[in-house]
Design a protein that fits this description.
The complex is a heterodimer of chains A (269) and B (528).
Chain A (H helix, E strand, L loop, with lengths): L1 H28 L1 H4 L31 H35 L3 H16 L2 H11 L5 H25 L2 H8 L4 H37 L11 H7 L9 H20 L9
Helix pairs in contact in A: 1-3, 1-10, 3-6, 3-8, 3-10, 4-6, 5-6, 5-8, 6-8, 8-9, 8-10, 9-10
Chain B lengths: L3 E10 L9 E9 L3 E5 L6 H9 L8 E6 L5 E2 L10 E4 L13 H13 L3 H14 L18 H14 L4 E5 L7 H18 L2 E6 L3 H6 L2 E6 L2 E7 H6 L4 H7 L19 E8 L17 E6 L3 E5 L6 H8 L8 E4 L2 E2 L5 H7 L3 E5 L11 H13 L3 H15 L15 H14 L4 E5 L7 H18 L2 E6 L2 H7 L2 E6 L2 E7 H6 L4 H11 L11
Parallel strand pairs in B: 3-8, 3-9, 6-7, 7-8, 13-18, 13-19, 16-17, 17-18
Antiparallel strand pairs in B: 1-2, 1-4, 4-5, 9-10, 11-12, 11-14, 14-15, 19-20
The chains are: A mainly alpha (269), B alpha/beta (528).
Chain lengths: 269, 528
């Protein structure tokens, strides 16, 4: 009975999560209409003005409208997060299913390599990858950093499938590994695609924003939510709105993604 | 010990969410120490009644009345639980215990909960019950994870747990289903012996008449929630009044009398096995020839039964023949020595093999009905969509699944439909060899008849060779011409099935015949 109720709640969570992500998408799409000022517009108002009817989220140290800046930053974070999530899905999820059906040597090597990479915190991995490439690739780095854990999950899922009776039945009637990969991609991956995508989005949004917060992400004047929070460091104690609103938007983005994944345990960030 | 144990009057039960009652106007007077078998198909209401009595099924708005022993008559909707000890015996598959935990500890926990006693005491009760049951495995074997036990061993464990609580009523839910005739016969003897000792009543839900024949007592035939016939088991075995009852009893396999000899297929050899060792660990053949080495051949269109109990070596032989396990010896399939083939080439060769198995998880539950049938056509022959659709339609028509929604996932199909789907998949693959592995396991009587007939037709029309793995001589008799009897990993005896039936030479063969012959086999089934 309790399990059934939890399962029903999970469905409601997922609907709420996807609705929230839809709302985020709408805000990003209508960003230019919703924001009163273009991104990085200085002296839109007095410095550190508190929230008011004219400036609903107040202004920051340089007189930028925090509402307009937050809407633009949400667009940057969401776009990078979505691109990184796609990378995680392809290099992690899909490759995990394919790798399981490869020959013994490449299969074991890939599982070992990804297992080692998955053991490292994704944040540190992302910083290392940015160091090896360039600062503008923070989104790609976040996607690559979250991929090993997604790979391991997909690989282990495919391995449990391959040990099942249906796999043996297929092998005994001459069904090739390529057909079994197709089965996994069409049925298994399709079945969990949405929840995996949402989980990946939550994971990479955390990694990407933290990387930006630490100064390795978006380059000014282009700002994302992580960088906005970092820039508010000097004024936060006296003007809470400069960091609180971007942080709330970031929390909402991650929470919606987690809910959309059915509150499944996320890839470790 | 006499008197009424359970008195049910005009009971009507409806499952939550169902639009019609699963059981209607059902009346039963179950005496102490009586055996009653409820016989019917899946939706006949027998399972619902068992679960209602067990208290595991919530039936809102139950109508009618129920009385236990000498107690007062209660409205059926107000019943809270049985006022005496009752045991519930499920079938061994699907696994009724947690697969990875020790079976002994789980069974002890069940006994402890029923007896409301410490776990240690329950364990001793379970041990004593196991020791009492003839043919039961030793207690130590149950220390292993439940999933590692054979179906027969697990059934003995479940029976011991039920008997350890000294019940007054045993509710058997298809308890013998999926077991070999020998195991079912052993368990039945144990159940009857303990009943004579403890004096409990048995209410057995069965989908086939075999249980009626084994247990005796009284039988109630149910169809779509209503009683269609009722009577003494012996009386019902000898003649049935209702057409539905006749169809259920007609599903029994043909008698184990030597059938007329069929012409031996004269085709080229399809499968040749030389010096195969089933018990050897390594892949290399021993230097000296072993007396346990297997040598046989299977001609195109012929059928060979591999008979034996679980663990007797039949599946090991099947796996070796299909190249899934390498063993010492030489196997030639379709004029190709499979020992010389790489895994990729072996995979190609296995395209000419189809399997029909009694395991319901053999098909991918995520795939649709159409995709399941199409897959061999697309993967092996790379046929276009239109061409594949034509073959698929023909195959689905032959097995009676053509009216189903082709996009429905396999997981939504009943075990009977899944079995038919396996046959449709086998038909489109146009195999040279069909491996049939316990094809009737877990099916109700009418479904068994249909599957048996479909397989027999398939064999005649497709002219494929059949390798039939079974523990039931009656099935072997219908589907095969020759048989090899296995025991303890070795070949015990081989020959034409009619010769084995008329003059069995080994104890293993005699035991298999005796187990199958316990059924009151009807003289109807025609040989292929």
């Amino acid at each position: 009975m309790i399990l059934r109720q939890i399962s029903r709640l999970r469905g409601a969570f997922m609907i709420a999560g996807w609705s929230g992500l839809g709302l985020v998408g709408l805000i990003v799409a209508l960003g230019d209409f919703l924001a009163r000022f273009p991104a990085g517009h200085l002296h839109a108002g007095p410095a550190l003005a508190p929230p008011s009817a004219l400036y609903p989220f107040g202004t920051d140290l340089l007189g930028r409208d925090v509402w307009s800046e937050t809407v633009h930053a949400l667009g940057v974070t969401a776009a990078n997060g979505a691109a990184a999530a796609v990378l995680t899905l392809v290099l992690g999820g899909a490759l995990g299913f394919v790798a399981m059906r490869l020959g013994a040597a490449p299969r074991l090597f890939l599982r070992w390599l990804m297992g080692v990479l998955a053991a490292a915190p994704a944040l540190l991995l992302a910083i290392v990858l940015i160091g090896l490439s360039a600062r503008g690739y923070a989104g790609v780095a976040a996607g690559l950093a979250a991929a090993p854990l997604a790979f391991v999950r997909a690989f282990d899922r495919a391995r449990s499938q391959s040990r099942s009776r249906r796999s043996e039945y297929a092998r005994a009637t001459g069904i090739s590994a390529a057909t079994l990969i197709r089965r996994d991609l069409v049925y298994e991956f399709r079945g969990v695609f949405l929840s995996t995508a949402a989980r990946a989005l939550a994971a990479v949004a955390i990694v990407y924003s933290t990387v930006s917060f630490l100064g390795f992400g978006a380059e000014p004047p282009r700002r994302d939510l992580g960088l906005m929070i970092a820039a508010a460091e000097a004024s936060y104690l006296g003007a809470w709105w400069t960091a609180a609103f971007p942080a709330l938007f970031l929390i909402a983005l991650i929470l919606f993604a987690r809910l959309a994944a059915g509150l499944d345990e996320g890839e470790r960030a | 010990m006499s008197g009424v144990l359970v008195e049910i009057r005009d009971l009507a039960l409806t499952r939550p969410g169902a639009d019609r009652p699963g059981l209607e106007r059902f009346s039963l007077s179950l005496q102490r120490a009586e055996i009653v078998t409820l016989l019917g198909e899946a939706d006949s209401g027998k399972d619902l009644l068992l679960r209602y009595l067990d208290g595991s099924e919530r039936c809102d708005g139950a109508l009618g009345s129920v009385r236990f022993g000498e107690g007062e008559v209660l409205p059926a909707g107000r019943r809270t639980g049985l006022p005496f000890r009752a045991a519930y015996l499920p079938p061994a598959r699907p696994l009724p215990l947690s697969p990875r935990a020790s079976a002994a500890s789980q069974l002890s926990r069940i006994v402890a909960r029923k007896l409301e006693c410490p776990r240690g005491a329950a364990r001793e009760d379970l041990r004593a019950a196991l020791a009492r049951i003839e043919g039961a495995p030793p207690f130590d074997q149950f220390r292993r994870p439940a999933e590692s036990l054979s179906d027969a061993a697990l059934s003995f464990g479940l029976l011991a747990a039920a008997l350890a609580i000294a019940p007054e009523l045993v509710l058997c839910d298809h308890f013998f289903d999926g077991l070999s005739p020998a195991s079912a016969a052993a368990l039945c003897s144990a159940l009857r012996a303990e009943r004579a000792r403890l004096g409990f009543a048995i209410l057995y839900a069965a989908s086939g008449p075999q249980a009626v024949a084994r247990l005796g007592g009284r039988a109630i035939v149910l169809r779509q929630g209503r009683i269609v016939e009722e009577g003494d088991a012996e009386h019902l075995m000898s003649g049935q009044t209702h057409a539905y009852t006749r169809s259920l009893f007609g599903a029994l396999p043909q008698p184990l009398s030597p059938a007329p000899q069929r012409p031996t297929p004269r085709g080229e050899p399809l499968l040749q096995v030389y010096g195969l060792l089933l018990q050897s660990g390594g892949r290399k053949a021993p230097k000296a020839p072993s007396r346990h080495a297997l040598n046989f051949e299977l001609r195109r269109g012929a059928s060979l039964a591999l008979l034996g109990e679980e663990g007797s070596g039949r599946r090991a032989l099947m796996r070796a023949v299909l190249g899934l396990e390498r063993r010492p010896g030489r196997i030639v399939f379709d004029a190709v020595d499979i020992g010389l083939l790489s895994e990729t080439m072996m995979l190609r060769l296995r395209r000419r093999v189809a399997i029909v198995t009694g395991a319901d998880d053999a098909l991918d539950p995520r795939m649709s009905l159409f995709d399941t049938v199409d897959e061999p056509l697309r993967a092996h022959l790379r046929l276009s969509e239109d061409l594949a659709a034509g073959y698929r339609e023909t195959a689905l028509k032959r097995v009676g699944l053509h009216a189903y929604d082709g996009r429905a996932p396999v997981s939504s199909l009943s075990p009977f439909d899944r079995r038919r789907l396996q046959i449709a998949r086998a038909i489109v693959a146009a195999p040279l060899l069909v491996v049939v592995d316990e094809p009737l396991r877990g099916l109700d009587a009418i479904a068994q008849t249909t599957i048996r007939d479909l397989l027999a037709e398939f064999r005649v029309e497709q002219q494929a060779a059949f390798l039939v793995i079974t523990s039931d001589f009656a099935i072997a008799q219908v589907l095969a011409d020759e048989a090899m009897v296995f025991s303890e990993g070795k070949l015990a005896e081989r020959g034409q099935i009619r010769s084995l039936l008329s003059a069995p030479k080994t104890e293993a063969t005699r035991a298999l015949i005796a187990a199958a012959a316990r059924r009151p086999l009807s003289p109807a089934a025609a040989p292929v």
